[in-house]
Amino acid sequence: MKHRLLLLTSLALLSACKKPPDAAHGHQPPPQPVSLAPVEQRELVEWGEFAGRIDAVESVELRPRVSGYLKEVRIKAGAMVNKEDVLFLIDSEPYDAVSDRAKGELNRAEATATAAKKEFDRVPALLGAKAISPEQADAREAAHLQAQGGLLVAQANVRAAALDVKFCEVTAPISGRVSRAVVTTGNYVSGLAGSATLLTTIVSVDRVYAWVDMDENTLLRVQSLARNKKLPLDKEGRVPAEVQLSGETDWPHSGWIESFDNRVGTATGSMAVRVEMLNPNEALTPGLFARVRLPLTAKYPALLVDESAIRTDQSRKFVLTVDEKSLAQYRPVVVGPQHEGKRIIREGLKAGEQIIVNGQARVYMPGQPVAAETAAPPAKTAAVTN
Prior knowledge:
This protein is an alpha+beta fold and 386 residues long. Helix content is 26%, strand content 35%.
């Protein structure tokens, strides 16, 4: 009886361990539904992004040229002013008195010079008639020259006094937006060089600069492109630039590279690059932080794929392609920066190849059959660069 029970148990175990007929014959799982998109090829320029700061093209700390009591303030904080507008008035009465005195000294010097010249003009005739000695002739010539020198000094004093009177009107040296008045009416202001009183500041607003620091590797790359005349240029033959302020999603402000500094900073390993932009609506306020895009390549045929198609295998990037037998294949790739919502592919793909953009999670191994359908094109987004 025991032997019969052991035999029945063994048969039951063998029956349970037996493989299904389909698996025993290597049956593949059914094709998994996935969405495909072709590898796109497009002519484009790669841009690099840099952190920058907006700065005024012209900036002035307005200080007086003469000392005195402030008589009038004619500015309103934050207002626009034009070049040569009178912004501050300094009491000019002391300088008017000095000017009048200088004019009086000039009149006396002119009279003295006129008399000395007449005396000197008679010297030849008097010497011919032997009415004066040579020593007297020399004395008249010296008096004439001294009178001419005194006249020049008096004229210079008149001009200096007139300038002091003029400088009592403190005018705007540039057109732009003025700050607040640092000094108010009735205060004494100094016009001494090196210690002149700050009255206000003015910054130009029609054009602005954006300063960025370009690292050494990027700088060498750009310089090489410039030497080979491969950098893209705008209609004016300038290297274009684009600027984005905080909160902006696109790049609405355009400009151009105005200049590079003359050396790489030893502490930072970067070079200052200055971008110039027009500022017609005054959106670019000096002092603001900004993102600045600069071209870093010549125009070339780039390969682009949807960002969703790229997967990561540890530190390696890959995509899944589909061959002519509708089988999924593993393809390692080298990726570049993003461009308008897609990713640039440096190596690993060819234009026109079909890759899986949706449904990769259903593909467990290379060679697995898939049921492909064409993916809808994604909506365009703002370009994101290096």
